[in-house]
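Re-running TlpA disulfide reductase family protein to confirm reproducibility after the cluster update. Everything else is unchanged from the original entry.
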Amino acid sequence: MRKLLLVFLFIGPTVFSQQENLQEKSFFTQKLYMHLSDYNRKADLAYRFNDYEKGQELFETFTSEHLEGSYMDNFKFQSLQKKKEVNLYDYKKPVFLITYASWCIPSKGEVPALNELAAEYKDQIDFVILFWDKKDKVKELSEKFSSDISIVYVDESKNNGAYVVRQLKHSLGLPTCFLLNENKKIMDIRRSVFPPMQTEEETAYRENYIALETSISNNLVNKYEEVYADNIQVE
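Result of re-run:
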């Protein structure tokens, strides 16, 4: 009896601690299920009256209060470069994930900004662009992007599962950026910068670069470097 008590004293707290961590870990699709309908109701009302500033404010409040801090569900997609099916969790570094489709093109200056950032941070971050399209169309669109960026796609006509895929596409609109740490925890969710059409190309590029680089620096790089440094010290 005394031996069992000692085992409980040493092992019990650890087990309960692990169980608590599992219970506290919430996923993107769970949070959407709980809060999306309320956000949609408020956002639809704002856009009905052309109050785009209010709509953006609602988006930022919704994502920061309910979605950031949750974990992106693992899901599968096709890799254009590897020519096979891969999982989101196959990427071991922090992930910069942005969703596109052929009917929702990148904003002016966004592609060159993404290409430059991918070149700068490729050793620390996996840049992944997810298209909702058929393979031939994705192949055509991918030519604009650097080889430092992983181009993946989901052909919904062949997607028979992955509830998260439908949620990603239909809940927050396109394009949307998700910044995930190495554990796939959502650190930031943001929409693309859309400069006015008359904005010069260089100015549009700088606006996109600054916005994206700021988000990356605040949410991914510093935290990842600190974790990496701690691991080196432990070893």
